Amino acid sequence: MRGFATWCQANDQPSLPSNPAVCAAFLVELAETKSMSTITVAVAAIRDAHLAGGHRDPTGSRGVKTVMSGLRRRLGTAPLHQSRAFDVPELKRILAFDRATPAGKRDAALILLAFASAMRRSELAALTRADLALSAEGIRITIRRSKADQDGAGAVIGVPAGHHMATDPLRAMRQWLSVRSGSKSDLVFARVSRTGVVLAGGLTGQSVNVILQNRAAAARVELDGVSAHSLRASHITEASRAGVPLEQIMRTSRHASVAVALGYIRSAGVIQDSSAGALGL
Hints:
The protein has 281 residues and is mostly helical. The protein has helices at 2-10, 20-30, 36-52, 62-75, 88-94, 102-117, 121-126, 169-177, 205-218, 228-241, 246-253, 258-268; strands spanning 132-134, 138-143, 155-160, 190-192, 198-202.
């Protein structure tokens, strides 16, 4: 809604309440630089702001719906860039770096926790030490707020201890916390200097991206499509391949939409499911 209000102010148009013609003009201009998913989010924000203020929803008009239909045909609804999922052997390749250094301990804990928990990068960056409870069984994680939890209700998920030293998220987290000093209110994942000093302040969501991409590049893993979101996508696709029921996967990933969760699984299996495999090529 903020982007719409800014646009309306610049064009001397009413933003709240607004009207269908203004909304349609805004959406057409937005489509010059943004994807269909961004436009859809903008429409939802305009609608919610109007309904919350007791105004009539301008986006429900026939004119705006016609504009949206045209934009969908023009732009498509599939994401332009999809994060690539990878399997456990590829994960092990990425983790084959020096884990004796503070940066190595942090990166191993970060990557393994992200893979095992299916957490979003913003959630990982926001974790404090008070949000983690470590035991012999694994890690109990309190997620205080997330992208899909706008009311701040929070969620608690668990990550079991691993069976292999190289990929055990509990072991990796214990090793990182052994060098990560601070109080319970401090962020779990901190910056580390080039000389190995753990610094004050935490990582950002973009930092999580950079760390994974740097480690993947060093391991000579194909970088196309690799981002922090790959770790979340990898959890979902690998759990599905292992026969974990979709309901159980969604309890961990906290997806509200079955269709969205299935999108990860179907995308990962598109080559294996292709009828071309039976053509004898």
